[in-house]
Amino acid sequence: MEKQLRKEKIWTKDFVLICFANFFIFLGFQMTLPTIPLFVEDLGGNDQLIGFVVGIFTFSALLLRPYAGKSLETKGRGFVYLIGLAIFVLSVGSFGFLTSITFLFVMRVVQGAGWGFSTTASGTIASDLIPASRRGEGMGYYGLSGNLALAIGPSLGLILTGIISFKQFFLICAGLGLVALLLSSRITYKKVEPKQKETKVKLDLYEKNALKPSMLMFFITVTFGGIAAFLPLYTAEKHISGIQMYFLLYALALMATRTFAGQIYDRKGHQAVFIPGTLLILAGMILLSWLPNSMILFLAAVLYGLGFGMVQPALQAWAIEKVPMHRRGMANATFYSFFDLGVGLGAMVFGQISHLLGYSSIYITSAVSIFISMLLYFYFLYKGRVSVAQQGS
């Protein structure tokens, strides 16, 4: 068995290309993550508008992911991926020429469409290229490309917006997306034969086998909406320095867990990584709600990075584990739809919460969301064991 695992190669030419393409598109995206709130402020917006501008992006991606998942099965992986990257490049490049929040809101909707198409496609393409016996490990390596971008992107974005104009900054971000587009054009995409056409036309919006891990992911990514949209403003209000270091430490911790969490999933299953991972995220949220100084900020970053790095690839691998190849696109669409819904809803709701109760309440609410995810996970385990027992009797 060990020899067979060694023979099944992960690092093929196409897998390397999809990882590099993923790195560059994520770098362009991650650089905008902490800077969009600053751009909204520069245009005259408040916390509530920041929440809506951040959140509408993910809702746009959410609405289009089911169509993207279906298109991956009917129009092909490459078509969906290249179209998504092109839309992303054009929308981000346009930000630098905008002078009103209304137009920014519209272009964020367009950006979300490109992001929904490209990320649904790239995760599916990566899963096509990874041997089934090493899927958890391979998805962990693929995720590292996005994590490396996360290690560099937010800090680089904050530094650049301090020394160049927003126009120049957004054109650089669009240029990184263009590099991803050029790399992706060199990939040899697998052709997927769909099942025989059904006589009845049905509305296909999700993959049922991916629902459980996707629901768990929703309650976890709610926390990310609070971090991406409001943590830079929260630390500024508290006069705590080191927000760039927060994103760097978070990403490094995330990358560290990617090297082993996927292998643990392959050998022992999701329970071996989900439970410790969510406990670490919960601790990180509690620390952020307290946040007395920079050292606690950095500790929260490490805890959140370690936890998210364990949980996210395990849940994504779980989402496609029992799905046939022709349904992987829809499984990834389902997973990322719940991911987007969590981030978007979190950003919008936290915009209202911070306006009424202050920034620290965002992270108390986030801790509650993680606790709900843990309770839901134990409920799924219980139902699964009851189902197995009933089948055996």
Task: Summarize the structure in words.
The protein has 393 residues and is mainly alpha-helical. It has one domain (10-189, 206-385): MFS general substrate transporter like domains (Growth Hormone, Chain: A), CATH 1.20.1250. Helices cover 82% and strands 0% of the residues. It contains 14 helices and no strands. The chain has helices at 2-7, 13-32, 36-42, 47-74, 77-95, 101-129, 135-163, 166-184, 211-237, 243-268, 271-290, 294-321, 328-357, 360-392. Mean pLDDT is 86; it is low at 1-5 and 196-201.
Topology:
Elements: H1 2-7, H2 13-32, H3 36-42, H4 47-74, H5 77-95, H6 101-129, H7 135-163, H8 166-184, H9 211-237, H10 243-268, H11 271-290, H12 294-321, H13 328-357, H14 360-392
Average per-residue pLDDT, rounded, comes to: 86
Straight-line N-to-C gap: 32 Å
- SSE order: HHHHHHHHHHHHHH
Write down the overall geometry. globular
Count of runs of 4 or more consecutive helical residues:
14
Report the sheet with the most strands, covering strand number, pairing sense and barrel closure. Answer: none
Quick rundown:
The protein is mainly α. It is 82% helix and 0% strand.
Q: What distinguishing features does this structure have?
A:
single chain; 393 residues; mainly alpha; Growth Hormone, Chain: A; 82% helix; globular; disordered N terminus
